[in-house]
Amino acid sequence: MASDSSIPVMADDVYAFDARGIAHRFRHSAIFGALSALHPGETMRFCNDHDPLPLLAQIEQHFGEHVVINYVSRAPGEIVIDFQVVG
Hints:
This protein is an alpha+beta fold and 87 residues long. The protein is built from two helices and five strands, in the order ββαβαββ. The chain has a five-stranded mixed β-sheet, with helices on one face.
């Protein structure tokens, strides 16, 4: 089976999303688009330089219980959050 090497995939259907390389004005749209593209059981591992609390509130409001939010790291300057799509 051929794989698409343009999509960074980590173990167990975890897709990397590094927001630090995306212009600020496009970040929220890009994140919502990426989350909408995930299937149940898939996870997006999100990296950012700050804790995106307003974004998390928007995600919770939009996706509700269909996206589980789990912090992997809260180190200064490097926030890592897993967004897992369920049901």
